[in-house]
Amino acid sequence: MSATLALGVGLTTAIFSIADSILLRSLPYPDSQRLSVLWTTSSAAAAANVTKFAVSSADWLDWRAQSKLFEDIAVTRVANLSLTGDGEPERVIGAKTSSNLLNVLGVRPILGRMITEEETQRDAKVAILSYGFWNRRYGRDRSVIGRSILLNDQPFQVIGVLPPDLGYPSKNLDLLTPLFVPQQEIRSRFAFFYRAVGRLKPGVSLAQAQSEMSAVMLRLAQQYPATNGAQKLGVLLEPLLDSTVGPFRTVLDVLLGAVACLLLIAVINLGGLMIARATARNRETAVRAALGASTNRLRIQILAEVIPLSLIGCCCGVLLSWALLKVLTPLLPQQLPGTASIGLHAPVLFLALLLSVAAVMIAGMLPARMASRVQIAGSLQQDSRTVAGGGGARSALVAAQIAVTLVLVFAGGLLIRSLVAVMRVNPGFSTKGVLTMKLAVTRAKYPTDLQVSDYYRRLIERLKTTPGILNAGFINILPLGEGKQVNPVEFEGKLDRGWVGADTRSVTSGYFSSMGMRLIKGRDFSEADNDHAPRVGIIDEQLSGKVFGQADPLGKRCRFATGATTMSPWIEIVGVVGHIRNDNLETDPRPQIYWPEAQVTQDRGALVIRTAGKPEAYASALIAQIHKVNPDQPLYDVLPMADWLEQSLRSRKLLAGLITVFGGSSLLLACLGLYGVISYFVGLRVREFAIRMALGAPPRNVRWLVLAQALRLWILGTIIGLAAAWPAGRLLRGLLYGVGSVDGVSLALAPFLLLLTALLAGLVPLRRAARVNPALALRAS
Known about the structure:
- This protein is of the alpha+beta class.
- Helix content is 50%, strand content 18%.
- Helix 11 runs parallel beside helix 22.
């Protein structure tokens, strides 16, 4: 019984601990429920499957001026920075921020001061360090305040240190610097670079704020028809927690529901075991009642005897939970907040104790009621060796246990089949032998686009000289990464089709070959496609089919919007490549178009290197080659492309794995419950079996009687479970891929596994029943 309780409590406590840290402890801000993230929306972007995107500086200033329901609204822009001149060069995650960010969040530096409005207006070179970065890089040295550090080859004065656990706008934030917004950018109203967060006034609901901000955007559309009006810009508000946790909240909700089902199964199983225990003590209970024990006294005695069981189950469950958290925490997505604080905190330990006591008390209610209603005369006349009473209740509990188990096994089947379907998706590129490494170029060292492009060219040429390197290239945003770059594209001669939303990327020659992408027609980029050459581009096969159908797109021209009213030069299409999955394997929202990096230069991105062997084995040599070109170049996220693909599946694999564990645990508990009921059935009918065999019945008839009992319970539980599986599948629809919520294979597999469980549970009692010795059994009765 203790093992059953420990299993249910341990799994429940582990999942609750994760949910507690991510959903309840992840926002270390006062009145965090009043914090809201603001996004820009657009009907044109929605057509390209972009539901929300970053905020423009002009809209932010208007929101601050016109909103009456927000205390204030702050904006940030995350940027990769290079820290040099102070030990090893390092890439740090910085955020340019408006001066009011810390006030909006409700926090203050633990050392030093905040950024001032005047410093943002003059683009002052000052920085506030995060607590983690201060601890890791400077050993919590308080004298760092006032010190100068080199960021992107420019000196910044450290003016403060942030409090611990501040995870906005990025969980891995290293420092904040002032946000300087040029007046030209504000006038253009088309610089959607910023993430906005606001603090609602006390008593204001999110719905009220959404209504007010939508009205503000309508006024801005009328005031600026060429920008806000033409783009049909809107605004979307969501709680900061929802924005931070994202779709993993759904995963946590499913896990909490699944572990609740497992705990229910454990309680049912525990109740069945306690009924058996109470039945075995039926005669003892009758004696106590005959000696004057009251009904309440008998109930209290039964419940009091199992309280130590709850304490043992609690201790074992906590140990199991601790072990599970050690395994599960490293598997959680890295971008989730609060993972560092996951542990057995006081609320979690209290929950474990509460669950243990509640489970035992609930499971003991029926046995206690049976004990209080014992028939004294009948029980005293009954032989102590006879097993009787409680069979119907135990059978009902086991049928319920089978039903809940079927739902869990069905859910596990759906998620596993979804995972298999996702893993079979062709991403459009090859991960074998591909190494990636990200880098950011400092404009202080390479101020012009020509210098940046020349730097990339020299790096790639240097990498190709390394033995075992087959090819190398550059792209500004890796596939399956978190970043998006979507532009509206217009095709010459196809103006009736309007703007087409496409993922736009800057790449060098060699990128497509390094990624194993098919060149379907035309040519790859070359070094001749530089800033002085005619503008060219390569589209993917999906965009070619969408715009040109069966016609040849080579030689046709397109252009993309660079502002609300400004356009790029016309770009000639010189090639068509295979389509890839950019966002993730589950969705395929947009086609792609590529520009030569030398013509649309980006100062950060990733090198993609195809190797002749295991890519990780070449990492050190390649990094050394890069540092020969630029010793101060930080490199980060040095990973095989296969690992990027694996990271995109991490949440799905974790969910499928945990639900499978829960399903397996529930099958084990169901097997134990069935075994107990069938053993009870055999013990109750030993005399009947002996008489049947004495009258000539073969052992197979007795076996069939036992087997029929197991099958009856399986059939009853399966009918109930199948009825409950349909709504469970519908609840999981948002997490499924490639399978329906009423998947025939999963619906067939779950009852089949439970049938095997029923047969396995009845195997030992069945053999015992078939070996009854009629003479000995009748003599003993």
